[in-house]
Amino acid sequence: MELKTDLKAAICALFEVHEDEGGTQRVVTPLAFAGSRDQVVVRVRPRGTHWEIDENAEASLYARMNGGDVDGENLRLWANELERNTGVALDDDEKLLASVLDQRLIAPAILNVASAAQQLYALATAHKEREASDFKNQVAAIVTEVCHSLGVAVSHNARLPISGDLEADHVIGGADRPIIVVTATSAKRLLEAEVIHMQYQLSKQPGFVLAVAESQKTVGVKQFNRANYYTGKTVQFSPFDFAQLLRGQLH
Q1: Coil, helix or strand for 176?
Q2: Which pLDDT does position 165 carry in this prediction?
Q3: 166 near 178, Cβ under 8 Å?
Q4: Which residues share a beta bridge with 98?
Q5: 33 near 16, Cβ under 8 Å?
Q6: H helices within 151-236, ranges in order?
Q7: 128 — pLDDT class (breaks 50, 70, 90)
Q8: 3-state class (DSSP) for residue 142
């Protein structure tokens, strides 16, 4: 069987190269993060005597947005092995990068960085679905127990009367001032809590948005600290303290 396709041209066509400011080349690769259509984008930046190839910390960002853990021991061990084998390092800003002196090494470095971005995302988000489900169940159990003991109405997985087709994990109390509980299993879900809070303010409807994250690390420390300005309250989960907080809000 004869290969009639220009394979070299076909492979090259899968990569889009765009020139940005400061001589930076932005390469949109055909590789995508697992379970999404988000393609891995790599930047080639001139740095005086060498070139820096990186993915702008997007793998870590997307992993955190989807509830991933980029601080785990498994990821640290993987990063050490990655740097030894490929020269791609994970820096303090959670960015995957490689540095080369020879222009001929830029193309291989692009592939190494893009592949590493895929791996980082996959490792960081592995097994998070089960863990997030366990956390959500713990929150739900406390909400149910507190509401039952106080005789307060509660609805679960409730569609909210605001624009955006948004949903709360739990809505406690009556329509005069409901407590809207959002279980923030990821940075993305925490951002939804902020949107819910703002929508209630814009529509001038009563409602106290209470976001609860398993830890600051699971949603990102910066996102956690920011959320307290854009929700009624954002807390790190502690079974006892969370139950006491609910009781205090309902009295």
Answers
A1: coil
A2: 77
A3: no
A4: 53
A5: no
A6: 187-202, 216-219, 221-227
A7: low
A8: helix
For residue 189, what are the CA distances in angstroms to 6, 78, 97, 186, 202?
A: 45, 27, 29, 5, 20
Tell me, yes or no, if the pTM score tops 0.90.
Answer: no
Question: Are the CB atoms for 29 and 42 separated by under 8 Å?
Answer: yes
CA-to-CA dists, residue 117 to 25, 77, 231, angstroms: 18, 15, 32
Q: Whose structure tokens read 């991933």?
A: 68
Q: In angstroms, rounded to a whole number, what is the distance separating the alpha carbons of residues 180 and 246?
A: 11
d(CA 223, CA 197): 15
| Residue 119 CB contacts under 8 Å (≥ 6 apart), including other chains | 78, 82
Neighbours of 40 (CB within 10 A): 24
Closest listed residue to residue 116, CA positions, set 65, 50, 60: 60
What is the spatial distance between Cα 78 and Cα 97, in angstroms, rounded to a whole number? Answer: 15
**SS3 of 46-97:** EECCEEEEECCCHHHHHHHHCCCCCCCHHHHHHHHHHHHHHCCEECCCCCEE
Q: CA–CA separation, 222 vs 60, rounded Å?
A: 14
C-alpha distances (whole Å) from 3 to each of 6, 7, 13, 14, 42 are 8, 8, 17, 19, 31
Decide which of 164 and 162 is more confident. Answer: 162
Provide the strand spans (E) within 141-203. 154-159, 167-172, 179-184
Task: Give the pLDDT confidence of 24-80 residue by residue, as tens digits.
Answer: 999 999 998 887 778 999 999 999 899 999 999 999 999 888 878 888 888 888 999
Distance between CA atoms of residues 90 and 87, nearest Å: 10
CA–CA distance, 121 with 59 (Å, rounded to integer): 6
